[in-house]
Amino acid sequence: MNLQIRIQQHFAASIATKQKALELLQEPILAAARLVFEAIQRDGKILSCGNGGSAGDAQHFSSEMLNRFEQERRGLPAIALTTDTSTLTSIANDYSYERIFARQIEALGRKGDVLLAISTSGNSSNVNRAIETAHDCGMQVIALSGKAGGSMKDLLQNGDVELRVPADSTARIQETHLLLIHCICDLVDQMLLTETP
Ligand SMILES: O=C(CO)[C@@H](O)[C@H](O)[C@H](O)[C@H](O)COP(=O)(O)O
Ligand SMILES: [Zn+2]
Description:
Layout: H1 3-41, E1 46-50, H2 53-66, E2 78-80, H3 85-94, H4 102-108, E3 114-118, H5 125-136, E4 140-145, H6 152-155, E5 161-164, H7 170-194
Parallel strand pairs: 1-2, 1-3, 3-4, 4-5
Helix pairs in contact: 1-7, 2-7, 4-5
């Protein structure tokens, strides 16, 4: 098989997924950025989590908050719950893998904080436990998902935002999640830069 055709197919599918996402997700992207902005305004923070590629996305987001995105501005409060291997391995070992994020939220989550929960299937039980615990702490949730939304969609409450990418391929969903994250970072920067002191 001509491998160049596969490259062309990957690009075409990625572009088509992003185009469809643009048509469906503009309002929820704006709502997600508002949740992040409002949390920062009330001295809250953003916790983020996900597995595999989505763990990378959780860290990508927190680094853009803590350091910066494209504009010069103060560092913003965010913690990726995916990075501390001592904490992750001890929770998984002493309790269960399902609790690796929830246990950290019990310790760190405060009313007014926001959880960025990332799962392409919506069926990762550790991410879903994190959502339940975030709600117990009085936090709102931004859910980045895909496919049919999985069990994650049934956990969301009023005030949460679901950004479900209209695709079935994990890779296409992940590529679009990163675009959504960059949109949110940019919108938050715009909101911060135009806020009246
Ligand atoms: O990056 C990829 C596949 O592109 C994988 O590492 C993928 O993230 C892992 O299989 C995850 O465990 C999938 O979890 P989820 O997106 O269904 O929550
Ligand atoms: Zn991947």
